[in-house]
Structures are given as structure tokens and as C-alpha cells.
Design goal:
Order of helices and strands: HHEHHEEHHEEEEEEEEEEEE
Helix content: 25-40%
Oligomer: single chain
Number of domains: 2
Largest sheet: 6 strands, antiparallel
Distance between the termini: 31 Å
Strand order of the largest sheet: 5-4-15-14-11-12
Number of strands: 15
CATH class of the largest domain: Mainly Beta
Shape: globular
CATH topology of the largest domain: Tumour Suppressor Smad4
Strand content: 25-35%
Radius of gyration: 21 Å
């Protein structure tokens, strides 16, 4: 990695960036993320993982070694899946507690580091990995990934026909009937209160659309203002901005498959 003319990295900083690069390489692999998603549901041995992911047993073992080395999974002795020769002892793999939250936290911390410690190429890789994690580790067809602020890195599933977005005194997500209400923490004070709300997302079959609910700060899709009462269709990779300024909310639209499964 080349240093900028104004930046001199110490030996410790160089070592950190090298190890960070290795960590991002572990997370940037879709096969490893699919393995993590399966292990989040239940502990499994390598052969069962190989069968479910349709990845060769040898490559599955290599992916697991990478995840073990990064401290994202652990293993314990147990019994493997039954074969024509019976059931045999095997290592059973399971994720460390709160692995998905830990990954998102790590990426959020890294992305806020000073430029001197986090070169542009690293920042680009972090952004790419965060989007890939959102796609691979979320089973829902449509999700929002929050960028910046108190909820940085949080994934918001869009599972109900109607989702209301706004600011609440206490941040949280609640569901009532066919409506999900997303209350962003009060630190996002540029966003209209949820009682109004700021914006509404509607799912019709395979399509997802957003409309502004008459908010003061406005709703913007890829930089263009959404004018009420029009509903604008969302696509994978779109950016939604709720209001503008330092206390707004930026959301990235992530679209998965209908059943949450991805081919290897």
C-alpha cells in the first residue's frame, strides 16, 4: 500500500492496516458470509455446511479456517451428519455470540478512523463489505442499511406491506398488523417525528416504493427529492436520505431473493 506524501505510517500502523486488510478479505467473501448465516441458525459440522452451501468439502474447511482465524466462529467436538458409513465424530462449528452485531460494530468503528489510519482504498473496501454483509446475512427480500449516526450499520428489514419511518423519543422498531414503525433515535433530530411520520415505504408484490409524508426536511432518493404524494420505486443500491444536514438519516436499499436463499 502506498503512503500519501503527507502521511508517514509507523510500524504499528502498517501492521494494523495489514491485519485490517486481512479481516476485510475474510468478510468480503460471499461463501463465508453464507456459512455464517447458516451457523447463526444452528451449529453444524463442515460436511453438513458443504452439503447445504454446495461448496466442496475442502473449500468449506478453508473458509471455516479463515473464520476461526478472524475470531468469528468457534468449534467444539461432536457428531457429524450421518453418512452411508454411519455417524462419526466431527468438529461442530458455531458463531461467537452476537457475531453479526460485532461485525457491524467493527466496520462502524473502522469507518470513523482518521484518514491517516484509513486510506481511501480501505474505506472503499469497508463500504463494499458492509453492503455485501447486508445482502448475504439478511433473509428478507427488502432491507435498509443505515449509514452514519447512532444506528450506523443497523439493518432494517422491510417485511410488512407498510413501513413508517420517523424519529422517536426512544429508538426502536415495532410492528402492528400490516404496519412496521421505525423510530430512529432522537439524535437524528432532522427527521420528522414518527407520529407524523417522515416517510412511508410500501411493498406491493415484488416491488418496493417510498413516498414522503409531508416532512419538513424532505425525502431524497439518489439526490432527487420525492414530491408528495408520488410513490417512487426502490432498487438495489439506491440511497434514501431523510432530510439533509448533520442529523439526517441515510439508508441504502438492499434487495435479496424472494426466499432469502442465494446460489453459491
Amino acid at each position: 500500500m502506498k503512503d500519501s506524501a503527507s502521511t508517514v505510517l509507523s510500524a504499528d500502523e502498517r501492521e494494523f492496516l495489514e491485519e485490517l486488510s486481512e479481516y476485510l478479505e475474510v468478510l468480503g467473501n460471499s461463501a463465508r458470509l453464507r456459512i455464517l448465516r447458516l451457523l447463526e441458525k444452528e451449529p453444524l459440522d463442515a460436511r453438513t455446511l458443504s452439503h447445504r452451501t454446495k461448496i466442496s468439502y475442502e473449500n468449506t474447511k478453508k473458509h471455516l479456517a479463515k473464520l476461526l482465524g478472524a475470531g468469528l466462529v468457534t468449534r467444539m467436538p461432536g457428531l457429524g451428519r450421518e453418512t452411508s458409513k454411519g455417524v462419526h465424530p466431527a468438529w461442530i462449528y458455531l458463531p461467537v455470540p452476537g457475531v453479526l452485531e460485532r461485525i457491524q460494530r467493527d466496520l462502524g468503528v473502522i469507518s470513523t478512523m482518521p484518514v491517516e489510519m484509513s486510506a481511501d482504498t480501505i474505506k472503499e473496501r469497508i463500504a463494499s463489505v458492509r453492503l455485501q454483509i447486508g445482502r448475504e446475512l439478511c433473509a428478507e427480500r427488502w432491507v435498509f442499511l443505515v449509514l452514519g449516526g447512532e444506528w450506523d450499520g443497523r439493518v432494517i428489514p422491510l417485511v410488512q406491506p407498510k413501513t413508517e419511518l420517523g424519529r422517536g423519543s426512544e429508538g426502536g422498531i415495532t410492528r402492528e398488523g400490516n404496519t412496521t414503525r421505525v423510530a430512529f433515535p432522537k439524535s437524528y433530530r432532522s427527521v420528522t417525528r414518527l407520529e407524523k411520520p417522515h416517510a412511508v415505504v410500501r411493498i406491493h408484490g415484488d416491488t418496493c416504493a417510498i413516498e414522503d409524508a409531508g416532512s419538513r426536511g424532505g425525502t431524497f432518493l439518489n439526490g432527487k427529492r420525492v414530491v408528495p404524494p408520488e410513490q417512487i420505486g426502490l432498487r438495489d443500491g439506491d440511497r434514501v436520505l431523510l432530510s439533509r444536514g448533520d442529523f439526517s438519516v441515510t439508508l441504502v436499499v438492499l434487495e435479496g431473493s424472494a426466499d432469502g436463499d442465494r446460489s453459491p
